[in-house]
Amino acid sequence: MLTGFDVTRADQASRRRVKDGIAVTMLREGPQDELSAMIIDFEPGAVFGEELHATPEILFVLEGEFHDGEQVHPAGTLITARSGSVHWPQSETGCRVLVLYPDGAASE
Question: Are 68 and 20 contacting, i.e. CB atoms less than 8 angstroms apart?
């Protein structure tokens, strides 16, 4: 392993269901002020509910269509959210998203 690098394989990372139809694969759980990274899988029709962000969030839609409560975002879309922002994560069709919290302390 190169010095200064951390490597996590998604197929070997811990996965847990957080809501009906929504599972999180934790790639990196950083302490506050360090990166947290996860993959979130939404089954068709899954709704997370209101989510208020205490820290900035970066979301990239890998597969399917992600709905933020107002707009539908197809695969290939990058979404950035500032601290204090609110959305309602869900997917009518199902989707997979990569979520990064640059400052750690991911909200759930």
Answer: no
Predicted TM-score of the model (pTM):
0.90
Integer Cα distance of 69 and 48 in angstroms: 10
Alpha-carbon distances, residue 65 vs 51, 55, 58, 108 (angstroms) = 18, 24, 16, 20
Q: Tokens standing for 59? A: 């979301």
Domain 13-101 has CATH 2.60.40.1930: no
| pLDDT tens by residue, 13-40 | 999 999 999 999 999 987 777 899 999 9
Scan for tokens 């204090």, then name that residue. 84
Q: Name the residue ranges covered by the structural domains of the chain.
A: 13-101
